[in-house]
């Protein structure tokens, strides 16, 4: 079952790359994003927990450098902040890969010199996902500090659900091989951007039960279209802006792609927006 899942993930990603769809999918250097990870609506694995190994044993949840009450902001830099600019964007999903709106994300990281601000709130900020489950962080590539590979800390919480405390990692870092708490499942996909900046993507999957929509119990290839609307059909090439219906709900194509099973509009928020 695990092997099946791995295979289908790989197949989906491969197909995505071959079709040249969805810019985030084509990011290189990291594992598949959760948005590409499910075919046929099966459940996906939650993002693993990860905490600093050097945190006090009395508190297994919050690392030594976490501070509560960070400001609400997605931008942690201004024009004078030293460091290579980095954006991290992605989605927060539940176990059925449906986006979670109003999920809390609290990020904190080291500055360019590998130091945490434990007095103020530099490189600390929390934000909430929008209705599509999207978030975006504007920051710098964090500096290194002894004993750890490069990482960004984050807590993620769906409304009324337990907090996921974890860390995000960068592909190609030499210390990824020696950091004992490094976890390749937490690798972001990272690419170069203009002005020597970096663009990273990561999708969180929270351990939150959801009722799958458009999953295996419905027929993904025979959705019920509304009269007068074009029904979503696997194998069709949809340019951005195309409007379709799927199980009676209307969606607009966000990125041009060739539809395939597993990418039904309710399952693929990176590709289809309700409305
Ligand atoms: Fe850290």
How would you describe this structure to a colleague?
Belongs to the intradiol ring-cleavage dioxygenase family. Residues 229-275 form the Chitin-binding type-3 domain. Residues 1-34 form the signal peptide. This protein is mainly beta and 275 residues long. Strands 1, 4, 7, 8 and 9 form a five-stranded mixed beta sheet that branches. A four-stranded antiparallel beta sheet has the order 3-2-5-6, with no helix packed on it. Strands 11-12-14 form a three-stranded antiparallel beta sheet, with no helix packed on it. It has one helix at 2-19, and strands spanning 85-93, 104-108, 124-128, 134-140, 151-157, 164-169, 189-193, 197-201, 204-205, 237-238, 243-246, 249-253, 257-258, 272-274. The protein has a domain at 44-205: Aromatic compound dioxygenase (Protocatechuate 3,4-Dioxygenase, subunit A), CATH 2.60.130.10. It is built from one helix and 14 strands. Bound molecules: fe (ii) ion. Fe (ii) ion is lined by residues 52, 65, 148, 151, 153.
Any ligands, ions or cofactors bound here, and which? fe (ii) ion
What CATH calls the topology of the domain at 44-205 is Protocatechuate 3,4-Dioxygenase, subunit A
- Detail the poorly predicted runs: 1-30, 51-62, 214-228
- The percent of residues in helical segments reads under 10%
CATH homologous superfamily designation of the domain at 44-205: Aromatic compound dioxygenase
Give the beta-strand count.
14
Report strand %: 15-25%
- Which structural class should the secondary elements be placed in? mainly beta
Organism: Amycolatopsis rubida
GO molecular function: carbohydrate binding; ferric iron binding; hydrolase activity, hydrolyzing O-glycosyl compounds; oxidoreductase activity, acting on single donors with incorporation of molecular oxygen, incorporation of two atoms of oxygen
Domain Chitin-binding type-3: 229-275
Pfam family, one: Dioxygenase_C
């Amino acid at each position: 079952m695990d092997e099946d899942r791995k295979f289908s993930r790989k197949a989906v990603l491969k197909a995505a790359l071959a079709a040249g769809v969805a810019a985030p999918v084509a990011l290189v250097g990291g594992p598949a994003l959760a948005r590409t990870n499910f075919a046929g609506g099966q459940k996906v694995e939650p993002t693993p927990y990860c905490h600093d190994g050097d945190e006090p044993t009395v508190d297994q949840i919050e690392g030594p450098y976490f501070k509560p009450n960070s400001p609400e902001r997605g931008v942690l830099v201004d024009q004078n902040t030293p460091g290579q600019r980095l954006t991290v964007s992605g989605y927060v999903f539940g176990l059925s890969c449906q986006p979670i709106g109003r999920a809390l994300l609290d990020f904190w990281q080291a500055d360019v010199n590998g130091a945490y601000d434990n007095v103020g709130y530099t490189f600390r900020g929390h934000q909430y996902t929008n209705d599509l489950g999207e978030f975006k962080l504007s920051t710098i590539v964090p500096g290194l500090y002894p004993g750890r590979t490069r990482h960004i800390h984050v807590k993620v919480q769906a409304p009324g659900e337990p907090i996921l405390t974890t860390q995000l990692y960068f592909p190609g870092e030499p210390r990824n091989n020696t950091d004992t708490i490094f976890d390749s499942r937490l690798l972001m996909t990272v690419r170069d951007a203009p002005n020597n900046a970096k663009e990273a993507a990561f999708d969180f999957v929270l351990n939150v039960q959801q009722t799958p929509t458009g999953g295996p119990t419905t027929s993904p290839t025979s959705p019920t279209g509304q009269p007068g609307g074009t029904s979503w059909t696997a194998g069709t090439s949809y340019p951005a802006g195309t409007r379709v219906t799927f199980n009676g709900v209307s969606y607009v194509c966000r990125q041009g792609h060739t539809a395939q099973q597993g990418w039904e509009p309710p399952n693929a928020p990176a590709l289809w927006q309700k409305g």
